[in-house]
What we know:
Its main location: membrane. The protein has 267 residues and is mainly α. The chain is built from ten helices and no strands.
Amino acid sequence: MLDFLGGSAGLDLSVQVIVLLAFAGFAAGWVDAVVGGGGLIQLPALLLIPGISPVQALATNKVGSIMGTSVSAFTYYRRVHPDMRTALPMALAALLAAIGGARAAILLPAEALKPIVVVVLIGVGIYTAVRPKLGEQSALRWEGRKHVGIALLWGTIIGFYDGILGPGTGSFLVIALVGGLGYAFLPATAIAKVVNLATNLGALILFVPTGAVVWGVGLLIGITNIFGAYVGARMAVARGSRFVRIAFLCVVSVLIVRLIWDIATGN
């Protein structure tokens, strides 16, 4: 069992690490389903595996994430009925941009972007906190082609970011849909799951041929991610946009602290 999880990568996994990965996968699936940002939990857990490289951790993280996101996207689709006229074009733009971002990551170090992302996240957090009515109800800013055009633009920008760096992609998608397009938090999260599914797929399109994915570990965290995603999506649908807004602010706060720590420690 332990040899299977380590796979051809030759990683030595203890029972304690396997339990930690399973728990991290569930927690990441829950957080990701509610508002995005599950990578904050799952990726650091993967990096605790002795001998795993950062590229292997990133690639394996995407396997777990895409499994959980598929379930949460389906759950939202059945219960919230997200606007697919927005979700599908945005997802296609994000997928292509994520591939481009992953290629650009080879040339531009991710560390160069982290200070910019911290500033943007602080602005997003303040903007959301001082506007308590933001995202309570959908009030779309544009219609027709202009609406789709703005959605394509946001999908391209955030998809590229996901390819080149990644942390907080789901949260950026939600705030773009809420603050930029005028959706309430719950339908915005539903659309974001469809788009995030595409960005994860875009990253895997590049990672899988390189052999960077540790499939045994990826399937382990993917299975527990699925359970977390299902619970999280059901809870978000039941409790509505106010609950999602509070969860969003919590995730953004943690993400800011995490990125500042990474900058300070040189990680």
